[in-house]
Design brief:
Rossmann fold, globular, about 140 residues, 5 strands, 6 helices, alpha/beta, about 50% helix
Length: about 140
């Protein structure tokens, strides 16, 4: 199964956390696409369109999207990738380990929260969920 890992990648902490998600997924047998490792690096103005198209195509070809949603606000690019994936009918899993709550019944923006099929609160919970998801997908095919 192919997985797209979405999340901010603008500092070492963000890239480290995305890589940890990637590691767990590859350990479960997923083939992963993670922009910080697999994507075009922004070096020239012309790369902006290439990065957009490459990420859009990678989301389109993924069987599951796993998104790092930590922080007070979801990264803008990650929010777009989730909305696009949701519109395509992709299975989306959000990882939100941040214990700050926005509202009583809402951990992230309600549009994001309602776009994910499953919201997990740890890497262990993500791994457990994806084991079942992969097993169910094999049975269905």
């Amino acid at each position: 199964m192919r997985a797209y890992i979405a999340g901010p990648l603008f500092n070492e902490g963000e890239r480290y956390w995305n890589a940890e998600i990637d590691l767990r997924m590859r350990k479960l047998g997923f083939t992963t696409y993670i922009p910080q490792r697999d994507g075009i690096k922004l070096q020239h103005q012309s790369d902006v369109r290439k990065i957009f198209e490459e990420d859009r195509n990678a989301v389109s070809h993924a069987d599951v999207i796993v998104a790092n949603l930590d922080g007070m606000d979801v990264d803008a690019g990650t929010a777009w990738e989730l909305g696009f994936a949701h519109g395509l009918g992709k299975h989306v899993v959000g990882v939100y380990t941040d214990w700050r709550l926005h509202f009583k019944w809402q951990t992230v923006n309600l549009m994001i929260q309602c776009s994910v099929d499953k919201l997990v609160s740890s890497l262990d919970e993500l791994e457990e969920y994806l084991q079942h998801f992969a097993a169910d997908a094999k049975v269905a095919s």
